[in-house]
Structure to design on (332 residues):
């Protein structure tokens, strides 16, 4: 396998990509993951209809900075016409790729017929993809799906074939059904069956959190790229770890002090990119701070304190205290 995969004409390193995550993978998050090696990033999902009615959040959600490239903008919607119109609007933000969300399980989205509801209507999914492909011109369109609607309707391969025949340039598959939401284990065998069914690149997704699980995803499914969501929480380093392992290079995980410095860098970025004041931006930063402290001695108590942070200087103090506690237990 070559080191580079092409999605349409867009070259993407065949290491690991960051999954779209509404409310988590905002620009600060994507930049941190890019800095630590993410091969490709995707925006939070954006409503196609919302954009057409000039949703005020469009610019915030759709801005693509050069440091994030290659980057996709993800749209969700249930009507081909709105999808086509939305694609034309987001093209102004010059995304490298346009991705269509056909996997979101949340009732607010599914009840409009969008997200994973499209897994139940393959023909409509195909028309939406075709409309987006036509509107996108030479910008590649990808589709992100789940394994199926429920365990009795596993139809990812059929969905992927429909996406391919509508002109999609790649398909990302999360190996869970809509009914599972995020529980249970992802069934990666479905990703393998999608790979066998289509000629376009297949992006494997679900439960990858380190180099071992990533390599397993590549090996067991034959997928062309791996996509990581929750495994990057407080752990943008996972992308470097994977890239190093795939090159056969040694990888030294960051020390606790380095990790805390990266956490503080992430918080500074959240504050500087926010249009809100520091205190309000800290509300956004709290969950990220808590994730960086996961898995250490006394983490639970510190994570609770993260949820009370209201300034950057408090975060610095908490990080120092956290490092001192770990050192007292011989953890560096
Ligand atoms: C908080 C959160 C937000 C998400 N938002 C989106 C989204 O906007 N669009 C999308 O296609 N998937 C979304 N997902 C699903 C992820 O992209 C991914 O498919 C899923 O988390 C499984 O991958 P993982 O096990 O690596 O996390 C979201 C997942 C989480 C946990």
């Amino acid at each position: 396998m070559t080191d580079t995969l092409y999605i349409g004409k867009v070259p993407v390193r065949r290491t690991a990509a960051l999954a779209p995550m509404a409310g988590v993978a905002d620009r600060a998050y994507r930049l941190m993951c890019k800095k630590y090696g993410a091969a490709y990033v995707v925006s939070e999902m954006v409503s196609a209809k919302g954009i057409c009615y000039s949703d005020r959040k469009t610019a915030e959600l759709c801005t693509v900075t050069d440091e994030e490239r290659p980057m996709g903008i993800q749209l969700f919607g249930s009507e081909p016409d709105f999808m086509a119109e939305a694609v034309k609007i987001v093209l102004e933000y010059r995304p490298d790729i346009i991705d269509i969300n056909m996997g979101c399980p949340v009732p607010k989205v599914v009840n409009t017929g969008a997200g994973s509801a499209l897994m139940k209507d393959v023909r409509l999914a195909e028309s939406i993809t075709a409309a987006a492909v036509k509107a996108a011109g030479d910008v590649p369109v990808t589709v992100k799906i789940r394994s199926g609607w429920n365990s009795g309707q596993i139809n990812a391969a059929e969905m992927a074939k429909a996406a391919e025949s509508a002109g999609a340039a790649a398909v990302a598959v999360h190996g869970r059904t809509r009914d599972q939401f995020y529980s249970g284990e992802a069934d990666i065998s479905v990703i393998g069956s999608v790979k066998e069914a289509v000629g376009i690149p297949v992006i494997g997704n679900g439960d990858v959190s380190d180099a071992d699980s990533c390599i397993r995803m590549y090996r067991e499914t034959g997928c062309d790229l791996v996509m990581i969501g929750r495994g990057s929480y407080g752990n943008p380093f996972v992308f470097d770890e994977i890239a190093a392992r795939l090159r056969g290079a040694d990888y030294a995980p960051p020390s606790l002090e380095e990790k805390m410095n990266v956490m503080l860098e992430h918080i500074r970025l959240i504050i500087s990119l926010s249009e809100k004041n520091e205190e309000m931006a800290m509300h956004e930063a709290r969950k990220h701070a808590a994730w960086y402290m996961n898995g250490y001695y006394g983490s639970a108590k510190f994570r609770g304190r993260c949820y009370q942070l209201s300034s950057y200087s408090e975060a610095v103090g908490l990080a120092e205290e956290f490092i001192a506690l770990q050192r007292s237990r011989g953890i560096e």
